[in-house]
Amino acid sequence: MTLDAVLFFVFGGIAVAAAVALILLRHPIHSALALIVVMAALAVLYLLQGAEFVAAVQIIVYAGAIMVLFVFVIMLLNAAREERTNLSRAARYLGVPVAVLLTAELAYLVWHASSANPSQAAGRTDVTRPLALMLFRDFVFPFELTSIVILIAILGALVLARKEP
Amino acid sequence: MPASWYLALSAILFGLGVVGFVFKRNIITIFMSIELMLNAVNLALVAFSRQLGELQGQVFVFFVIVVAAAEAAVGLAIILLIARNRQSLNVEDVDLLKL
Amino acid sequence: MLVLEHLWIILALPLLGAALNGLFGARWPKRWVDAVAVGSTGAAMLAALELWREFASLPAAQVPWVKSYFPWMVAGSFRADFALQVDQLAIVMLLVVTGVGWLIHIYATGYMAGQGGYYRFFAFLNLFMFFMLLLAMAANFSLLFVGWEGVGLCSYLLIGFYFLRQSAADAGKKAFIVNRIGDFGFLLAIFLIFRTFGTTDFGPVFTAVGQQPAENSFGVITAIALLLFAGAVGKSAQLPLYVWLPDAMEGPTPVSALIHAATMVAAGVYMVARCGDIFVHAPAAMTVVAVTGCLTAFYAATIGLVQTDIKRVLAYSTISQLGYMFLACGVGAFAMGIFHLMTHAFFKALLFLAAGSAIHALAGEQDLRRMGGLRAKIPWTYRTMLMGTLAIAGAPLFSGFFSKDAILWQAYASGHTALWLLALAAALLTAFYMFRLVFLAFHGAPRFEEHAVHLHESPPNMIAPLVVLAVLSVAGGWMAAPVLWGGPNYFEEYLAPVFTRAATVAPRLMPAGEQAHALELLMTGVAVAMAAVGFFVAWWFYIRQPQRPDKLAEQFRAPYTLLLNKYYVDELYGALFVRPLAWLSDQVLWQWADVKLIDGAVNGLAATARDLGGSLRRMQSGNTRSYAAWVILGAAAITTFVYLLVR
Amino acid sequence: MTANAVFSWLVVALAKSAVLLLVTLTVVAYLSWFERKLVAHIQSRLGPYRVGPHGLLQPLADGIKFLFKEDPTPAGVDRFVYFAAPFVSLGLAMSAIAVIPFGPPDAQIEVFGHRTGLAVANLNIGLPFLFAITALGVYGIALAGWASNNKYALMGGLRSAAQMVSYELALTLSVVGVLLQAGSFNLNEIVASQDGRWLGFVPRWFFFPQVVGFFCFFTAAIAETNRSPFDLPEAESELVAGFHTEYASFKFAMFFIAEYTSMVIVSCLATLLFFGGWQSPFPEGRWFAWTAYLPNLALLGGGVLLLLDGLRYHRRGKRIALALLGVILLGAAWLCLAPETNRILQGPFWFLAKLFFFLFVYVWIRGTLPRFRYDQLMSFGWKVLLPLSLANALGTSLLVVLRQP
Questions:
Q1: How far apart are CA C292 and CA C239, in angstroms?
Q2: pTM beyond 0.80, yes or no
Q3: Which residues lie closer than 8 Å to D337 by C-beta, 6 or more apart?
Q4: Greatest CA span in chain C, whole angstroms?
Q5: Which of C338, D25, D72, D251 is most buried (CB neighbours < 10 A)?
């Protein structure tokens, strides 16, 4: 049992547990916290796979910005615990088994899609520089496109959330 | 640590996201389950990129994160509107789309 | 090697100026707008000078100096880079454009002062500079075409600068549409080039052409050359597509000077010279070029005789001078064409600016018949105007003298005697109508009520460019001076590397030696004599016996009216093309095709979609989570399918 | 790595963290004392002077007070979050200290026969890590505000969430210039890339090319740490005490310590990114050899001052205490004459000097500037700071592009 195997199981376990908590907890804030935990755990897993920068971004953007937005909105709307209502028929008879089936199949597929041989890139030290080069050379057009997407999203959010005078 | 383990983990997380998506009633929480699914996908992408020794996977993670940010902004704005207009965050109160 | 490494700087400067003024100029005080506009173009000029300096130290092996910055269009086998190219020809163009452009910017700060849309004017002007420089530095036809269209766009925007005036708006549209015709030919030429040579980069194309023999029958190269020339005809206002240029005078005078006299209209000449390698391989095309140019030169001159709008006279003289340039290119003397392009840029810009200064002094009066006697009132304008006139008329030792007579000599020496005679006549007419303009405007008695308009000399920031340009139009040609005593023409020698291949393909059978030189001097004498005759006739008519011209007009009413109405060409085109087109687009394309066909189809689709939706909408339960469940079901189905594939 | 190596590495890391923790806590405690003194003198008051000579024991007293006060839990709080929040803030703030290099990586000390540098961890992505920590710092405050079920606290939490998210952008962007010039995320390398001199005497600190960046960075940093003039989340004039209204005794102490720790961290960042970290401002060479003994001089001066001051002090106990302190300092000055110690001391000395300067600026600003209004705060962040830092990043990148052939 090597060190990163241990770390994998620890943090993978944390991630799954937090995800379950996200579903079971009844108050949106608690769910949000659970999700943040998931993200942090995932960041560690990224580190384990040598994707340092992705890990950092994961924390900064996901946990640090997006989830803050969620928490902010929850606080703003002062959301209450969600009340019990019976599941909708479709959800009950369809959702549960299908979700399980889906998970199983996905797990099977990816398990087989990934050949067992360990990675060549595991030992790579500095991934940030090549990553940047790739992002700004090969993917520069999509990159700029995403910036436009963001811009549009900002405008949309503004227009939607503005209080009508 | 072979990539398949990471992939399996991501599949499980994705499944949990799906379950949350179907079962939660609070719109915000449903939205969060979607984020969970996105995260699962990111994990898969990173795992693949490590296994293939290619960085494209990580680049795509960036794009996913960007899109997630945009989606969060707009989605939360919409949720804000819903909450404002019908004083409730329960999806079952938002069902005007039926005939 | 800063600029040589970063050629894009020269382009970026005017573009930056345009962006700044266009975005913020509306809110800025005039001072800032001036600073940005003049500063950016001035910096561009400095950059061009620096480029010249650095280029001089470049080994001949590295000329033309091409720098490719990034792939711009890649489609299948087609690939066009954003690549810039510098050789002697480009250097000359850059210097002329930036230099004259800068002076005209300075002038405009005075001329346009206090007019609406001041910042807009300078934003457009800078944008024009950008496209013009791009055109001059482009390293492939695709990029050249971008610059080509860009200058066209800016020309349109600036002609229609006073867009509230119907005539201005129409003139803009006319310029744009007439240019379209030529550009269509140009575009076809580019397609044909790509189809033939598989690329649009200058280097490969020209080398590929160079390997072929000159085709004496009508082949693909001739086709390419003719199509290219069609583009040039449109841009440089040659027969039969010249009609837009006179109307373009609706734009502000600095625009007329910069775009419709000095630089843009010369782009056609530049393009033909740039493609010299292609043209020399198509003797037929060369002949077409020469004949067209010569005819235009004479034809426009005749119209210029009787026009009464000062700017239109200059416009027609521009057309005819451009004709000279094409004549030069047509007889294979590309260097001479470029030479005349440069000198013409100097003195024609000068003439326009001086005319603008006069118009300015008269508070917008453009009609020669209501000018006169301005000499004493606005002395500086008068002096500079006179310099320009002498230059264009080809008075000895002025710049026009060297360039124009060189062209005449080349025409004669290369054996096109008929063309030479026609060009000579055009020279006479040129001298005549130019001096007619000067005499009408500046001599004789004032023909306007002086108390109504209070005359004033223009501010220094308008006079200074005039003086500089005057000096240039006097001295601009002296690098060809040694020709007079049998020496070399340094300008031609400077450009020689660009046209070596062309020269080898079509060796211009120039008579050499002593008697040849004597002959050349003789020809020069003849040309000067012609100019002198023109001058004296003008003097006789407009100083000695001012009533004479009207008498003549009485006697020869028919030709006079014909000239006055510019041979009714506009009316002709109107009847031949415009009205039928209007009818077609109105009756057929709109009433039938658009309304019936397209709208019908669209509405039909919409109707079907509505009915479908109406029948399908019963599936909607409105419960979000059941929708989610459906989505997941779909996802699961797909996954199962994949799963089965994998197993 | 073998289990043994892992173990020893773990032990050393833990030991270093523990030492660092203690040091930080002390520093923070005395930072509060320093602040109170300085602000007091700015307002021409005396500040604490009862407990210990010059109130030097005041922090201790405060600590004791924090520990022994009653700790009520208001009704209707969300217990879990209410208790978790202070731990979150403190834990994050403390963990950020771990990646900060106080001295050059080659200046190593012997611990359990295990040579180790002056930083707990030398991360490849030190800077992003720090930013990640800062980004997470919001939660402590926001959640505290939400959990304590009090409208003032909620307002404070909301404000801080909005404020920190807004200024985080400017904070991150203002550093881009430095990153572009240094070409690395590793704090050690960033400092190393500031080595050398312009014109032989101006140190190659990024402060000089990045003045704008530094301005944006420091302003955003003050806002990020919720210090005046950006301390709206705890604006007592409008929100009682903001997010920690409902917190008492030890939990409040945690917030308090977290805030001051983040001050320290931000000052460390400013030192590392813009002022050449541990590097001495004096150039090398014969003429400046004596600067190696500046630390000793500082200690010596401090000792002498304390002695003189102590001997003039009006109460005996304190007189003795101060004199003793002075003697200790003198002894330290003497100890540091040993070349090895001296060499290792150089880095930390300059680092701490710069750090102290920035902390001083912090307190100075607090003592000088009035508090922003909330809309002013927002519009300043979005309409001034963000564009400025963006422009700075753009300009720097253009510079870098033109610089390289």
A1: 7
A2: no
A3: D293, D296
A4: 107
A5: C338
Work out the minimum CA distance from C124 to partner chain A, whole angstroms. 27
The pLDDT tens digits of the residues spanning C406-423 come to: 888 888 888 888 999 999
Quick check: C148 and C235 in contact, CB under 8 A? yes
On whether the CB atoms of residues C526 and C423 are closer than 8 A, the answer is: no
Complete domains list, chain B, with CATH:
3-90 (1.10.287.3510)
- Cα first-last separation, chain B: 53
C327: CB partners within 8 A, 6+ apart: C290, C293, C294, C297, C337, C407, C411, C419, C423
pLDDT of res. C326: 94
For C60, which DSSP code? G
**Residues 6 or more apart from C641 whose CB is under 8 A from it?**
none
Residues near D404 by beta carbon (within 8 Å), at least 6 away in sequence = none
Touching chains, D (3+ CB pairs < 8 A): A
Q: How far B29 CA lies from chain A's nearest CA (Å)?
A: 6
Q: At what angle do helices D151-182 and D249-274 cross, to 10 degrees?
A: 20
In one-letter notation, the amino acid at residue D138 is: V
What does the mean pLDDT of chain D come to? Answer: 82
D305 residue type, one letter = L
Q: Tell me chain C's radius of gyration from C-alpha atoms.
A: 28
A102 touches chain C (CB under 8 A): yes
Question: Of C618, C620, C628, which is closest to B21 when you measure between CB atoms?
Answer: C628
Q: Which of B78-82, C208-212, D101-105 has the lowest mean pLDDT?
A: D101-105
Q: Are A55 and B43 in contact (CB under 8 A)?
A: no
Residue C324 and residue C345: Cα distance in Å, rounded? 13
Q: What b-and-e string marks burial along A77-111, b requiring 16 or more CB atoms within 10 Å of the CB?
A: bebeebeeeebbebbbebbeebbebbbbbbbbbbb
Please, how many CA atoms are within 13 Å of residue D177, restricted to the half-sphere of its CB?
28
Across C205-215, average pLDDT: 85
Amino acid at D82: Y
Distance CA(A83)–CA(A85), nearest Å, equals 6
C55: Cβ–Cβ under 8 A, 6 or more apart, which residues? C4, C65, C86, C91
Instruction: Tell me the shortest Cα–Cα distance from B20 to chain A, in angstroms.
Output: 5
Domain ranges of chain D: 13-279+338-403
Chain C residues touching residue A106 (CB < 8 angstroms): 639
* Phi and psi at residue D335, to the nearest 5°: -55, -40
Is the bond into D128 cis (omega within 30 degrees of 0)? Answer: no
Topology annotation, domain A1-83: Four Helix Bundle (Hemerythrin (Met), subunit A) (1.20.120)
Burial D286-318 (b: 16+ CB within 10 A, else e): eeeeebbebbbebbbebbeebbebbeebeeeeb
